[in-house]
Amino acid sequence: MTRRTGRTAAVLTALLLAALPSTGHATTTAPRPTYTNPVTSGVVDTFPDPAVIRGKDGYWYAYGTQNPVFQSRGETSERTLPTLRSADMTHWEYAGEVFTRADQPSWHGGSRLWAPDIRYTDGHYSLSYSVPDKDTVGVATAPTPTGPWTDRGAVLDSDSGCATGDIDQAQFTDEGGQPYLYWGSYDTICVAKMNADRTRTVGTVTEVAQGRRMEGGFVVRRDGFYYLFYSDAGCCDGAYSGYQVKVGRATSPTGPFTDDRGVDLTAATSKGGVVVGANGDRWIGPGHNSLQTDLSGQDWLVYHAVPADDPDLDLVPGIDRTLSRRPMLIDRLDWIDGWPVVRAGAGPSAGAEQAPVSTWDAGGDFNDGSLSGWRARGAGTGGWATASEPDAGGYVTHSGASPAHLVSSDTAPARVRAEADLRVTSADGGAGLLLAYRDAGDHVVARLDRDRGALVTDVRVGGVSRGEQVTALPADFVWDAWHNVTAELRGRQLTVEVSADRLRDAVTTQRRTVPASAAHAGKVGVAARGDGAEADNVGAVELYTPVTRRVAEPRPGRLLPAYSDEFDGPAPSSAWSWVRGPAAGAGTGDGSLSWPTQAAELHLATNTASVLTRDAPRGDFIVETRLRLASGPPNQQAGLVLYGDDDHYVKLAHSVLPVSHTDGKVTHVTEFAKEGARPTTTPPTPVAYGPMFGGPAAGTLWMRLAYHADTSGDEHEVRAATSTDGVHWTWTGVWTLPAGQALRIGLVSLNTAGATAHFDHVRTYGG
Fold first, then answer.
1. DSSP code, position 383
2. Are strands 416-424 and 404-408 parallel, antiparallel or unpaired?
């Protein structure tokens, strides 16, 4: 798999550049730093299922699934929930592991530990993790992001109430402070409330999503919606990993969640809402995501993917299968028309990209133990001092009854995002974030007011308050623990969020419109009222510019009649030929090709099914069919193929498949798969098969395969799309095959007898 070349790359690059936001800061003309995926290159060999948090010391910390992260250094064993640290989200260093084999809790039974999720709550870090051998979730807590960790046991009951695998968990905190746990794998995701100390689930268990190989749920809240990210189709099969990230949204944390076509995530079909999939450049099977936000407010998807040029690790003692190499990637997450998508739809990055904003235009972290770069203002100027602790490092405190301000020497721009970690240790105190600060009579403040139990904002212009706005904080708000307060001022619109750890699950959000005279450049700082105000990581930068336009998806060119068929004759045209055919019962009539599903296979070493094929045009093209397949028993499928031979093809099928852990229930999926050699395993695999799953299926389904000839990489690149109305298309990821063998356009109807596929046409268009 190589970088896209030729006309396709030129068009994609131009569209992506047009979609990029402005990135210049008001205070500097220097270009933004860049990074190149994987961000863990040279640090660890692999880092699956990454979860990231910004610690109270101002560093980002990442946690990954147990894996042999130092295999290239000659280490044959695994690290248990390995941990990394970074000052900028792109340059990482190894920071240890949560457990060693020697101190791993005995209740795990020696299980490998997977899929960590990390949160900060009530003054400590809470790390949940999957224990697959026990089919449950554990949790450990620590005073700092690197430990020491104290295990708190299993989070789920022995019978969790969820139909399938009890792994791949993630926490979420709703407005008002109620915590939830999402979990599940292969093929159901569930949610339940958690108790106050977040060590057990309580109450009703709700199934919120069901899909073929669905797992890895992760929830954020944005603009009134709850977004459930998840992955499907298989994480860990090297070059045949069909993983991709999808999303649904709801107006409640317990659903119902629907995809971008309005399909309920619990419906018995595959889903749309593709956030990121393979794009044919370098990365295979991107998935199992978390989310981070840089200092400018730009969101970033954190996920793993398999490198096409080196997809497999060496065998690990004690593990009887080849593990896939899955380093950590980050890419810009854009919210377009209410839906998240990586890089405006361009997919995983393979070259240099603008890096996250990780340094302030104005502000600082007090880690040098001084107030250098800060200026005291107000009556209580003498009450400011610095202190330190193991978790936060340096921070600033204020004592004294008089209101006081501590502001930066530098100025932040008018369109600004400011944030601070705040806590209040006295019963009648308050700590606030200042922005757009000119003086004591001209600024904006967002204050945690303990006496009123609320987030209070005030806008002052010309020495006069334009009115306080008060939003209640949760009744169990822990005032003497750190809380992150962010304030975004875009034009006259001010949005303030209070959260534990910047993970897009604020316990309180307040929005208000400020006077035009208040929306100006200014200092950032801390406001103290009464004793006990403490602050850390106080700063501001220019607010990010959102991307609002997606890159273009493939569109058909002119129809190529010589490679098309409307099936309006007494038989398929002479351009078609059969592999193992003609199939019994197949024939044209009433403007379609009718073909009963065969009790036959086209899968690995079993190749008994018929394939109807014809030549494909040279160069890029899009081939389309409209398929009608009535529901029947499990394991029927029909659809399009680009066929080289029985062990070298790409297939897009409407497949009827059984649902795991149920009796007789089926799901309908759009299965986009490839078959070919997999020489990188030990021992080499002569032929392998890998599926990914596209958008919703239906009794009448339009299907497209977009073919691109990557001549410089000597590869076939194929991308799939489906539509339930012929107008709105869901495009999935890209599969590649070596280009040494030509591919022919084909049709299949197979797997289990009992239904009839009707192909209304095959139309081929220039690409």
1. G
2. unpaired
| Amino acid at position 486, single letter | T
Gap between the Cα atoms of 145 and 60, Å rounded:
9
User: What's the longest Cα–Cα distance across the chain?
Assistant: 95
CB atoms within 10 A of CB 725: 11
CB 403 within 8 A of CB 380: yes
Tens-digit pLDDT profile for residues 139-162 = 999 999 999 999 999 999 989 999
User: How do residues 288-341 score in pLDDT, each as one tens digit?
Assistant: 999 999 999 999 999 999 999 999 999 999 998 999 999 999 999 999 999 999
Burial of 556 (0-12, 13-18, 19+ CB in 10 A): middle
Per this entry, what is the length of the chain? 767
In whole angstroms, give the CA distance from residue 719 to residue 713.
16
Q: Compute and round to an integer the Cα radius of gyration of the chain.
A: 28
pLDDT bucket at 662, cuts 50 / 70 / 90: low
pTM over 0.90: yes
Percentage of residues in the chain having pLDDT higher than 70: 95
- Distance (Å, rounded) from C-alpha 7 to C-alpha 254? 45
d(CA 396, CA 389): 11
Beta strands in 11-123 (DSSP E): 34-35, 51-54, 60-63, 80-86, 92-99, 114-121
Tens digit of each residue's pLDDT (9 = 90 or more) over 442-471 = 999 999 999 999 999 999 999 999 999 999
Q: What is the mean pLDDT of residues 99-106?
A: 94
Range 107-119 burial, b when 16+ CB lie within 10 A, else e: ebeebbbbbbbbb
